[in-house]
Amino acid sequence: MVATFIFDFDGTIADSLGAIVAITNRLAPRFGYEPKSPAEVADLKDLHTRQLLRQSGLSCCSVLWLLRRVRQDLQREIPHLQPFPEMIEVLTTLHQRGYRLGILTSNTADNVHLFLRLHGLSPLFDFVYTGATLLGKRRPLRQLLRRYQLDPATTVYVGG
């Protein structure tokens, strides 16, 4: 029986793709890559780290600086972002049925908490764990399970 649902934040709860595309395109000249369309940015999400580095032409260090800057700039956009409408109902229903809800994100905890507070969603979540990296979410997910003493057999991850 499922006891806990862990959600990705960007693109699952928060409709943030447009803001992320605008920020990364604005930073393109500074970091030396070509601006991307929303579809191209969405496709990058499915790439492994080496593929992402190869396709972008950026060094690992440059990508890390870029991601840091995107997170910082995204903080200014958080008040303008909306949750996906269907997610509000899903999250509310799961919470009312007694499931434990959490978030695993590569975004900052401050950004996520601000978003949740602005949309009245804070009371629905038991935790926000920031740890997803360029290397994927497998390792941070294992860390999250240990930290919150969650049984993998009764935990569901929802997101990309």
TrEMBL record:
GO molecular function terms listed in the Swiss-Prot or TrEMBL record: phosphoglycolate phosphatase activity
Q: Which UniProt keywords apply?
A: Hydrolase
| Any single Gene Ontology cellular-component annotation | cytosol
- Which top-level group of life is the source organism from? Bacteria
> What EC class does the entry list?
hydrolase
Q: What is its EC number?
A: 3.1.3.18
Protein name as catalogued: Phosphoglycolate phosphatase
Gene of this entry:
cbbZ
